[in-house]
């Protein structure tokens, strides 16, 4: 169910990115205005992740997830009534806040139901719904929009959310999913002075910038640079998220195999592999560009999974959902800052600087991780708790 809800969440959030050529043609939104709409989602998502993380830790998964999905389903379906910049701004804010529960819920489910030696793959499975949803969105939403219009496509996303809520009420009756953690206050115990935690969050958020850049601006780039149509996007925009999906399972397997003993080295490799995205505008052959975008999203999992596991292991007990919320929220904060700037570059056809900046953020994230965690120290702190738990 956590995989399924993260799938639906990415269909809901990614539908706008896939339909934006048609929406811009009808509403007259500029790429920069679209960037601010993305920022509204990202700001709300940034706030919603730690808020829902704390709420889920306090209320339990069953009630917390039902409440969150109900909110964001109403907001997603409401896009079908949007008439312009202001209405999209408000609806994206509500959608972003509700979807802030997605990955805190997923991480809590993993920690409540799986032993330590399976949690890397558990995170990959629960989080992979996001990449799977991004794969499905163009294949599912664009054909629906071609039949019933882009407004009808958003109403269709509301039906998906209602189906999940109905199923969740019946499947989530396991006692450990319904029960709160037992704390008397909502705020979990986090040592905000721990530099290692901030380093892990930097690796997560900065390493994920190429992911947000491709998801939100990839369709615009293909339309503007290669002249593809709205219908063509259905057969192209599933390819980059397929790399993201494959990457989750590859990097999850690597983390389980190594026991996070090599967390610093994993992040270093991922940082280097992120750099070729900066040369993507030099590619004039569409298949090569799609392969490049596939690879860039594949590498993203090499930041998300090890940094999450590292952060959870150094945080205090009972703060699992909040840690997930802080990670996704910090990523969303960066996208909120960068999306209008990316949109402005696209309005002026300055694609080179946009791609270059997106490719350099993962390297900056690794540097910040290395500055706050000595590589050997990080490896010991990541491996130590797993060993004690197994013992």
List keywords for this structure.
disordered C terminus; globular; Growth Hormone, Chain: A; mainly alpha; 391 residues; single chain
Question: What features would you describe in this structure?
Answer:
The protein has 391 residues and is mainly α. It has a single domain (2-181, 193-390), classed as Growth Hormone, Chain: A, CATH 1.20.1250.20. It has helices at 2-27, 31-59, 61-78, 85-99, 102-113, 119-171, 175-178, 195-207, 209-226, 230-233, 239-258, 263-274, 286-314, 320-347, 351-372, 375-390. Helix 1 runs parallel beside helix 3 (61-78), helix 1 packs parallel to helix 9 and helix 5 (102-113) packs across helix 6 (119-171). The protein starts with a helix and ends with a helix.
Short overview:
It contains 16 helices and no strands.
Task: Break the fold down into its secondary structure elements and pairings.
Blueprint: H1 2-27, H2 31-59, H3 61-78, H4 85-99, H5 102-113, H6 119-171, H7 175-178, H8 195-207, H9 209-226, H10 230-233, H11 239-258, H12 263-274, H13 286-314, H14 320-347, H15 351-372, H16 375-390
Helix pairs in contact: 1-3, 1-4, 1-5, 1-6, 1-9, 2-3, 2-4, 2-5, 2-14, 3-4, 3-5, 3-6, 5-6, 5-14, 6-11, 6-13, 8-13, 8-14, 8-15, 9-13, 9-14, 9-15, 11-13, 12-13, 12-15, 13-14, 13-16
